[in-house]
């Protein structure tokens, strides 16, 4: 891996040594933005020699103004004419250099018919996977002459406060619903079932950590890698690993109990609600240590100002990341949202509950 060039670094070299000279020569007055955003392990900084797949290589996105869309063919000609086969030792596929507008690209990725990102409604946020938001706010911007790209990324930098509270509450509810089921399964001799529930709880704890630290969680391929970059990971990782590798349910209970108490204190350190007891207690008269996730969920919901989100919070299932881990289901908004304003099925689902 010593000879690996990170994708972001390669893209910046491509922008500086290929894109800039060609556009400056052919269209010196063109105002544009250039960045590496969107799908790709390199956008999140997780690319390796093994992950050089899909569109990995020297590439950038070029964003032009709506008024300059008519010049797209001239831009393509400037980039394609006598294009070399290689750049910096890597195959060059110029057709991977997308020329678009900020509203068209971000609107399509978000599944929105409108280009005003500041008008993104709270319900819309619930339909967008955190992976997509990480892709659109990650990567690197190499140039932004008219500021629209920077504005879009800034607006999407993290969830609005009410959405943030709503999502944290939903994860606490998930913990509260299953924290006592893991030891109950083990208690009757179902160690496999107990281990499966423990894995779900570990994922929920990790998801909550991303939310508490205000970081978009990536999809499963990089979920654990990104978790190790969180401030809390050094404290939590040993307990989560112990819970994952435990030989029996008693070990899992203790390891998860330690994890619960850490994230409970992390919640209190946010000062979003009144302090909540961060100690685990027995589940009624049974020998199962629980944190009582619903206590934290209820406290967070009480702080939500938007009436629609407060009403949705009563259903306890959260946003699209909590509803399903199906890749195709999470991408459904891109397939169904149209420029005519047709609402995607996920948004429609939330609206029917209001």
Automatic annotation (TrEMBL):
Annotated DUF4037 domain residues: 125-223
Descriptive protein name: DUF4037 domain-containing protein
Native organism taxonomy: Bacteria, Bacillati, Bacillota, Bacilli, Bacillales
């Amino acid at each position: 891996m010593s000879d690996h060039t990170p994708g972001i670094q390669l893209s910046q070299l491509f922008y500086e040594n290929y894109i800039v000279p060609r556009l400056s020569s052919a269209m010196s007055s063109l105002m544009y933005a250039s960045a590496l955003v969107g799908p790709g392990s390199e956008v999140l900084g997780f690319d390796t020699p093994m992950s050089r797949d899909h569109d990995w290589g020297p590439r950038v996105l070029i964003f032009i103004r709506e008024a300059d869309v008519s010049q797209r063919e001239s831009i393509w000609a400037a980039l394609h004419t006598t294009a070399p086969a290689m750049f910096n030792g890597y195959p060059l596929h110029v057709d991977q250099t997308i020329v678009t507008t900020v509203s068209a690209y971000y609107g399509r990725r978000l599944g929105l018919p409108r280009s005003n990102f500041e008008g993104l409604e709270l319900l819309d946020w619930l339909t967008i996977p955190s992976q997509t938001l990480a892709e659109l706010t990650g990567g690197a911007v190499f140039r932004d002459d008219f500021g629209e790209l920077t504005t879009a990324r800034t607006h999407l930098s993290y969830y609005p406060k009410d959405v943030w509270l709503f999502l944290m509450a939903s994860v606490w509810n998930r913990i509260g619903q299953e924290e006592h089921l893991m030891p109950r399964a083990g208690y009757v001799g179902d160690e496999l079932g107990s281990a499966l529930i423990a894995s779900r709880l570990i994922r929920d704890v990790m998801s909550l950590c991303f939310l508490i630290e205000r970081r978009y969680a990536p999809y499963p391929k990089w979920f654990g890698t990104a978790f190790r970059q969180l401030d809390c990971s050094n404290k939590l990782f040993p307990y989560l690993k112990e819970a994952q590798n435990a030989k029996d349910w008693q070990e899992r209970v203790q390891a998860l109990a330690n994890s619960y108490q850490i994230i409970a204190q992390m919640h209190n350190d946010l000062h979003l609600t009144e302090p909540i007891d961060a100690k685990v207690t027995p589940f009624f008269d049974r020998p199962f240590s629980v944190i009582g996730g619903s206590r934290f969920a209820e406290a967070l919901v009480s702080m939500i100002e938007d009436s629609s989100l407060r009403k949705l919070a009563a259903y306890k299932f959260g946003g699209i990341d909590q509803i399903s881990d199906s890749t195709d289901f999470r991408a459904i908004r891109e397939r169904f949202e149209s420029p005519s304003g047709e609402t995607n099925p996920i948004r429609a689902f939330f609206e029917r509950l209001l």
